Each structure stands twice: as C-alpha cells, then as structure tokens.
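Marked as duplicate of an earlier ticket. Keeping the data here for the record.
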Amino acid sequence: NLKNMTKELLNYLLVAETDFKEELCSKICMAVDRYSPSRRWQIDTLIKVMCLGGNFVKEEQREKFCRVVAATPDLQSYTVIKLYFNMKESLAQEALVNVGVWCLGEFGDHLVSGRAVDPDNNPIHVAAADVLDLLQDVVRKPPNSDKAALT
C-alpha cells in the first residue's frame, strides 16, 4: 500500500543519513507522482516531503509540484493555505519556501479574499499585511542562508 509505505519513508527521512536524504526525497516524490491515489493526497504528501526534507528536494521535483498545483484549480486554495501556514511555522526548508512563494504569488488572492476555506468549509481570511510580513521574512533570511555564507 502506497500510503503506508510513504508514511514509513517519511518517518525514515527524519533519521536518515544526510548523504541519503536527496535520493530518498527523489524516490518518495517519484512514487507519489506515479502512483498517487488522488491529487489531494499527492499535494499533501509532497508538502510533507518538503517540510521534512525540503533542503534535499531537487529543482525538477519542485517544478513538477508547481505544475500539479497549477493544473488542479479546485485544490489551489487548499494548497496555498497549507503552504502559507507551513511557511509561517518554519522557513528552514528551501523547497517549501520556493514552492510556497510561487503559490503565494499565483494564488495568494485566495488567502486574502476569503475564498479559501478550512476543512469544515469555514472561510479563511489572512490579512494582506500578514502575507507581506511572511514574504519579508523570506527576503531577510532565506532558507540555507547560513550554508551559503559558508561557501
């Protein structure tokens, strides 16, 4: 079962050797892209991968995620909400920040207009100033800025 296997691989991602994390993220993304039971599960799982191992998710996989979101209008509000709140939690994972900023640029109007809804269909409204504050935080301290300073 893909869901059980993915759950186990995500748990392993937390403790895997750093040298193995890029390959593990790649394999998880590939399996999810290929065998996902639904678009929503696919998006949820890829966001989890980016939250846990976003510094190891390749550019190609980030682009693929953005294409999936762009091609799934009924999940765009859902996705931008999940990414926004995950980014508010932490800006440490590069892939999460990359796709999150892209989604905020493309679908951020869903957040500030109240078109987005929570799981109980209650409207979610985020102030435009809060979105701008988050984006300013990204600019002030981009993911991996510490690593970039070392090279």
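See parent ticket for discussion. Helices lie at 2-15, 18-35, 39-53, 59-70, 76-89, 94-113, 128-140, 145-150.
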